[in-house]
Amino acid sequence: GAASSGGLVAYADSNSDDVVGKPQGPPKKKIVVLGTGWGGTTFLRNLDSRLYDVQVISPRNYFAFTPLLPSVTCGTVEPRSVVEPIRRILEKKGGDIKFWEAECFKIDSSNKKIHCRSNIGTNLDGNGEFLVDYDYLVIAVGARSNTFNTPGVEENCFFLKEVEDAQKIRRNVMDCFERASLPYLDEEERKKNLHFVVVGGGPTGVEFAAELHDFVTEDLSKLYPSIQHLVKISLIEAADHILTMFDKRITEFAEDKFGRDGIDVKTGYKVVKVAKDAITMQNPATGDIAVPYGMAVWSTGIGTRPFISEFMKQIGQGKRRVLATDEWLRVRECDGVYAVGDCATINQRRVMDDISEIFRVADKDNSGTLTVKEIQDVLDDIYVRYPQVELYLKSRQMNGIADLVRTAKGDAEKESVELNIEEFKKALSLVDSQVKNLPATAQVASQQGQYLARCFNKMKDAEENPEGPIRIRGEGRHRFRPFRYRHLGQFAPLGGEQTAAQLPGDWISIGHSTQWLWYSVYATKQISWRTRALVISDWSRRFIFGRDSSC
Ligand code: FAD
Ligand code: MG
Ligand code: MG
Ligand code: MG
Ligand code: MG
Fold first, then answer.
1. Which of 32, 120, 144, 316 shows the greatest Cβ crowding within 10 Å of its Cβ?
2. For residue 466, what pLDDT band results from cuts at 50, 70 and 90?
3. pLDDT tens for residues 50-74?
4. Residue of 38, 144, 494 to test ligand 1 pocket, by largest number of atoms within 8 Å of CB
5. Is residue 502 part of a domain?
6. What is the pLDDT of residue 93?
7. Is the CB of 207 under 6 A from ligand 1?
8. 254-285 b/e with 16+ CB inside 10 Å = b?
9. Whole-angstrom distance, CA of residue 142 vs CA of residue 317
């Protein structure tokens, strides 16, 4: 708005009409965004692009709504309904954001440059490579599928990560059915072709298995009546249960339902090899078992992209598995570089590392002991900087810090307890156990993209008031609050128009009504009215005519 844009003039686009005649300010800072997935796209949609010179680089010129990819594998939803061209998203913003369809293959953070390569065209050197300068770099390149170097996976398994993957799966499911129908096969060979193996009992593997089961029972059984009894779906999971990230009630319900549906859930089995026609799994009790299969979908684990690993070595993170940022999503020791989503993880600062400093700051009267009041005075700062403290109190059903202090003292009655440093350490000794890595989900990536955009939108303000509104004890002052994740719940579609949901406050809901909640949430979350209309019409078409089996 006009009121808050007092400082905007200097930063306004020097090509646009409204600054003609006004003094021109310093050139806009350059932001380069890598990736057009959940993290990158949410960042771009929330960024005030008038303030910066923005360039976007991604090998994909569209955003993909990944939660609906499992539905694409069986034709419940069409591929074009889950993608939105990035240029359309940028055009809606009105600014002049540039997009290059290319892949970054090297980050040179000491010179603030990135090396890119286009796969669709070549330059005069004949290689399609180019350099881009940045002032700020937002890395949002996501992760790759991880085979954990299991032999044969790369060559023989399907993955479910991109839209193309879902389309390939769909085609191959139909190929398996047509192959199994050929006149010259014997029963064993038909069976083998109709054995579908899903590796990985996480949300994606489970949803795919459920979707495939529905497709087979609701649609394909009518079209392939003579072979439908030969179909088998196996779900292999190395842990003791599937959906381990969900509440036990959901896990149990899912395992029971799959059991009734005839999906063979093999928990405690690790896949050790995938050959052309047999998949070998291992269990301490049974040893190695090799089973023939027609199609295998590998849906377990994600890993770091090679050029990010290379970058991590350069900046001294070579020993880590995932690129680390601080709680402000800044890549440490790397000026102007930020990372969001699946390609990064937040290194949450531990209370125990700062405990003496926290004590010193809180002990205002330098008495060498802390009163409940003294602790309470710094508590808001502590909560902001160390969210694990609040989580810990909640998990212990403690009503604030006074409870903690009294518990530490073993004296629940007395009001005027005081803690010395050793007692203070003891009271907080377990809080860091509440530090957890955030899950690799769209929800996390998009919240981080939004958070970062808001920081960038306020950056100029913050530069003028470096003290900022937020003070965090123990490490000086920061301009912004650290990123804080808000978990809004998670769905696990289980097939047969039934879904399980775990909502905030451990609210569990399972069944047909939850499926309707799922439909409405995913219709609402669509990135545009166009994809919303397409998705809803796909669902309706499926309800009326069933899924399409021609491909
Ligand atoms: P991505 O969305 O993967 O985006 C990465 C972007 O970077 C892409 O545009 C890619 O093309 C680009 N890129 C790659 N390499 C380069 C490079 N070298 N240079 C430049 N750009 C590059 N999460 C949920 O919360 N709920 C769900 O129901 C859910 N369902 C899922 C179902 C499936 C089948 C899958 C695969 C994932 C699902 N997820 C879900 C997880 C969610 O999709 C990811 O956590 C999310 O996409 C992460 O966002 P991101 O921006 O980090 O990465
Ligand atoms: Mg992204
Ligand atoms: Mg995505
Ligand atoms: Mg992450
Ligand atoms: Mg004191």
1. 32
2. low
3. 999 999 999 999 999 999 999 999 9
4. 38
5. yes
6. 87
7. no
8. bbebbeebebbbbbbbbbebbeeeebbbeeee
9. 18
Domain-ending residue, one of 419, 434, 449 = 434
Ligand 4 center–CA 422 separation, angstroms: 35
Say how far apart CA 166 and CA 144 lie, in whole Å. 15
How far is the centre of ligand 2, averaged over its atoms, from the C-alpha of 44 (Å)? Answer: 10
User: Is the minimum distance from the CB of 60 to ligand 1 under 6 angstroms?
Assistant: yes
Residues 287 and 363 in one domain: no
323-370 pLDDT tens trace = 999 999 999 889 999 999 999 999 999 999 999 999 998 998 999 998
Structural domain boundaries enclosing 396 = 352-434
Q: Give 32-54 pLDDT, tens digit per residue.
A: 999 999 999 999 999 999 999 99
Residue 141 lies in a domain: no
Going by C-alpha positions, the residue among 334, 313, 264, 253 that lies closest to residue 293 is 264
Helix pair angle (442-464, 38-46), 10° resolution: 40
Question: In a 3-state reduction of DSSP, which class is residue 77?
Answer: coil
Contact 499, 510 (CB under 8 A): yes
Predicted local confidence at residue 21, as pLDDT? 47
Token readout for 85 is: 């061209």
**Closest residue by CA, ligand 1 atom 37:** 66
Q: Which of 434, 465, 480 is the last residue of a domain?
A: 434
pLDDT in tens, 124-149: 778 889 999 999 999 999 999 999 99
Residues 290 and 221 in one domain: yes
339 Cβ below 6 A of ligand 1: no
Residue nearest to atom 27 of ligand 1 (CA): 67
The preferred substitution site among 57, 441, 535 for testing ligand 1, maximizing ligand atoms within 8 Å of CB, is 441
Ligand 1 close to Cβ of residue 331 (< 6 A): no
In a domain, 14, yes or no: no
Domain membership of residue 390 (yes or no) is yes
CA 127 – ligand 5 centroid, Å: 67
Q: How does pLDDT run across 259-311, given as a tens digit for each residue?
A: 999 999 999 999 999 999 999 999 999 999 999 999 999 999 899 999 999 99
Query: Which residues are in the CB-under-5-Å shell of ion ligand 2?
Result: 35, 37, 39-40, 140
Q: How many domains does the chain have?
A: 2
